[in-house]
Amino acid sequence: MLRLTLYLGAAPIGLATGLLAWMAAGGAAAGFEKLVPIEQGLTAIRPPPRMNVQVGFVSLPDMVAAPLFALATGPGAVAEAVIRVEGVALTARRTAALISIDGKAADWMRVGETRDGVTLQQVTPGKIVVDTAFGPKDVALGERSAGAPEPSAPAIQASRTDEMPPGFRGPPPPASAPRSQ
């Protein structure tokens, strides 16, 4: 019985002892006093200048109507943007690229700006990184985006769906299929 009394009384006595020690050390005020110089140092730091990137407003119905993933084939498929980098500007005041999208006239885009579904993410002296509906792409200076057909390339005609392509070997027949002898 004596042990049970000691066990039940140990927790409240330990908490009371800890509270008294904390109060003797200064309580909550002791912790706040240590943070004052750090807080003053943080308020003295200036945030970097913000770039003026205009972001368009998207309404909820437009957001819900847009597909979550871009469709590459079939009805409602999204065409892949053809991107050509005409030039870059890397200065202390400006980071931008002269970009032509889908054969339109080239226009300057700043990092973070979106136009025709293409967002400029990064500009380096030899290439840019853009984000499209199909994911990020690297496009070198003076070149077209990867996977974009050249203007002189003939269009690929769709084959009939009931014919197997050349060199295609189908799966073996099921075991229950009648055997030819």
Helix-strand string: HHHEEEEEEE
Q: What is the C-alpha radius of gyration, as a whole number of Å?
A: 33 Å
Oligomer class = single chain
Category from helices, strands and their pairing: alpha+beta
Number of strands: 7
How confident is the prediction overall: mean pLDDT? 78
Low-confidence stretches: 148-156
Question: What share of the residues does DSSP label as strand, in percent?
Answer: 15-25%
**Helical run tally:** 3
User: Numbering strands along the chain, what is their spatial order in the largest sheet?
Assistant: 4-5-6-7
> In which range does the helix fraction lie?
25-40%
Give the overall shape, derived from the CA principal axes: flat
- Report the sheet with the most strands, covering strand number, pairing sense and barrel closure: 4 strands, antiparallel
Terminal CA distance reads: 93 Å
